[in-house]
Design brief:
The longest helix has 20 residues. The protein is built from 14 helices and 13 strands. α1 crosses α2 and α9 packs across α11.
Length: about 375
C-alpha cells in the first residue's frame, strides 16, 4: 500500500506551490540560475521553502501548511520577495506567468538531478517542451476515500478554473490564439490531463501499484493529472491553474479550490451525470481544450451534462456555489478578486511584442505585494 497521511492535518488545510521564472533584469531572457536563487534565500526565516524544478531557469516556492487562505495570502508575497531580492543581487529578476513569452523551452538547461535527467531520457521532446508553470494547491483531506470522492466530484468544474486562470497566450515568441498554451503542452506528457473514472481510492491505488510493479513509473508523483491524490502529504493536489502573475490571484484561486472541495464533501455540488457513462471524462477533454483556447470566452459543457454555456456563466455559478463554504472557512473575501469575464492572458495581449509582455510580467510579479523581509 502507498504510504498515506490523510487526516493528520485539519480538514481543508492548505499548501500552495508557485512555479516562477528566473530572468535577466535587463533583457528579460530566461537565465539558468536556480542555484543562485537557492543560495540567496538559504538561512532566511521564511513561511515556506524554495526548491528546484525541471529547468534551471525556474524555481518553485511552497508555503508551509496553512490553516486559512489568509495565511497563504501572507506567505506567497514573502516568498516571492525573498527570491526577488536574491535574484536582484545577481543582476536578475523573477517573473510569474504560465509561459515565458519569448524563451525557447527546448533551449533551457535541465537541472542535473537524477529525477529530471531520467525524466528527459524517458519523455524526450515532450519533456523538453515543458517550459510551462502552474499553480498547485494542496487541500488536506480527512481520509483516502474522501480524497477520491472529492476528486471525482470537483473534476468537472476544473476547466472553469483553467479558463479563469489562463495566463500563457505567448509561447516561444509567438501568439497562436491560445489563452493557455500551458494546458496543451502539459497534456503532451504521459499520464496527464483528466484522471480516469476509477470507482474508489483503492482502485486508483491498485492501478498505481501495478504500474510501479511493472516498471511503467516510479511512483504516483510521476502522474501529471490536472488533479491527483497526494497520500504522502494527505492532500488532494489540484494542478490545473496557470501560474498567476498577480500574487493576489494565487490566493484567490486557492480560496476557490478550498471551498470547492469543502462543498463537494458536503454534497453541495449539483452533478446529475446519470447519462454520462464515463462520469463526464469525455466532456472534460472537450472543456479542457475549449478553456485553454478561449479562456473565459470559452463555451463549456455544464458539469451536469445537460447544457452548453459560456465559461463566464459557469464561473459565476461556481463562485456562488462555493461562497457559503468559503465564508465558513474564512476565504470569502478572496473570491471577490476574481472577475468571471477576464483572465490574465488578456493583460499580456495588450503588449504588441513578446519582450513588452515579458517586461510587464516582471513588473506585475511584485506589484501590490509590498512586504518587509527580516
Amino acid at each position: 500500500m502507498i504510504e498515506q497521511h490523510f487526516g493528520e492535518s485539519s480538514p481543508f488545510s492548505l499548501g500552495v506551490e508557485e512555479e516562477l521564472m528566473i530572468l535577466d533584469a535587463v533583457t528579460f531572457e530566461q537565465v539558468a540560475a536556480v542555484d543562485k536563487i537557492l543560495s540567496g534565500v538559504e538561512g532566511m526565516d521564511l513561511p515556506g521553502g524554495v526548491k528546484t524544478e525541471l529547468f534551471a531557469s525556474v524555481f518553485e516556492t511552497n508555503t508551509n501548511v496553512c490553516a486559512t487562505v489568509g495565511e497563504v495570502d501572507e506567505a506567497l508575497p514573502v516568498l516571492r520577495h525573498a527570491a526577488a531580492a536574491a535574484a536582484a543581487r545577481e543582476g536578475l529578476a523573477i517573473g510569474a506567468a504560465a509561459t515565458h513569452p519569448f524563451a525557447l523551452p527546448e533551449a533551457q538547461p535541465i537541472v542535473k538531478e537524477e529525477r529530471y535527467v531520467t525524466f528527459v531520457g524517458y519523455g524526450g521532446i515532450t519533456v523538453r517542451r515543458q517550459g510551462v508553470q502552474g499553480l498547485h494547491v494542496h487541500i488536506g483531506m480527512p481520509s483516502a476515500e474522501e480524497c477520491w470522492q472529492c476528486l471525482d466530484a470537483i473534476v468537472a468544474w476544473l476547466p472553469v478554473v483553467l479558463a479563469l486562470s489562463a495566463n500563457s497566450p505567448w509561447y516561444a515568441g509567438a501568439l497562436n490564439g491560445m489563452a493557455s498554451n500551458r494546458a496543451p503542452v502539459l497534456a503532451e506528457l504521459p499520464r496527464a490531463g483528466v484522471p480516469p473514472a476509477f470507482a474508489s481510492y483503492a482502485e486508483w491505488e491498485a492501478w498505481v501499484e501495478r504500474l510501479v510493479r511493472l516498471g511503467v513509473t516510479e511512483d504516483y508523483t510521476r502522474i501529471w493529472w490536472d488533479v491527483r491524490p497526494h497520500p504522502k502529504l494527505g492532500t488532494l493536489e489540484v494542478r490545473v491553474p496557470d501560474q498567476p502573475t498577480d500574487v493576489h490571484l494565487s490566493a484567490a484561486f486557492t480560496a476557490v479550490l478550498q471551498a470547492l472541495c469543502a462543498t463537494a464533501l458536503a454534497g453541495g455540488l449539483p452533478r446529475d451525470q446519470s447519462a454520462l457513462g464515463d462520469r463526464g471524462r469525455a466532456d472534460y477533454v472537450q472543456n479542457r481544450w475549449s478553456a485553454a483556447r478561449f479562456g473565459p470566452r470559452a463555451k463549456l459543457l455544464h458539469p451536469d451534462g445537460q447544457s452548453y454555456v459560456l465559461a463566464t456563466e459557469l464561473a459565476t455559478e461556481l463562485l456562488a456555489l462555493v461562497r457559503p463554504a468559503a465564508r465558513e472557512l474564512g476565504g470569502e473575501a478572496f473570491l471577490d478578486r476574481i472577475d468571471p469575464s477576464s483572465c490574465e492572458a488578456d493583460l499580456q495581449l495588450t503588449s504588441d511584442t513578446a519582450q513588452g509582455a515579458t517586461a510587464d510580467i516582471v513588473t506585475r510579479t511584485l506589484a501590490q505585494s509590498s512586504v518587509r523581509l527580516g
